[in-house]
Amino acid sequence: MKQIIPHITVENCKEALDFYQGIFGGEIRNAQLADGIEMFKGHEGKYIHAELHINEACVIYLVDIFGKDPIKGNHIQLALQMDSDDEINRVYEALSKEGQIKMELQDTMWGARYGVVADRYGVIWELNYQK
Question: pTM for the full model?
Fold first, then answer.
């Protein structure tokens, strides 16, 4: 595994990015708006992904709320940056056993293999292997 990254869902992602950057410093990278993406039609101006790189070891992912408001406790997920197809498959299977698959493991538009699983304790894990 390369990294464990907190992924925070908030109302007004742009404002939260500026807030956290003001506190922690760093650089906002890979900010992607919903604009022009068919599956996010009607959510123009919202962020589907943004990263605050505080330093090489410390990164926070943020995203706007889409649909239902998150319940306190599930608005923070842990994103795992995996090293290989074998590793992501093994971790996905292990976490989903007695857990709940939120998004099937699949190839993505950003060139990665990705899936989301809530484990048997309710912790939500985003698994990503950048090919």
Answer: 0.72
Q: How far apart are CA 52 and CA 83, in angstroms?
A: 22
Task: Enumerate the β-bridge partners of residue 29.
Answer: 51
Helix (H, G, I), strand (E, B) or coil at 19: helix
- 72-82 pLDDT per residue, tens: 666 888 999 99
Output phi, psi for 94, to 5 deg: -65, -45
For β-strands 112-118 and 59-64, DSSP reports them as unpaired
Q: What contacts 6, CB < 8 A, 6 or more positions away?
A: 60, 61, 76, 77, 78, 79
Task: Provide the token pair at 124.
Answer: 């939500």
Tokens of 66: 């889409």
Q: 118 with 42: CB under 8 angstroms?
A: no
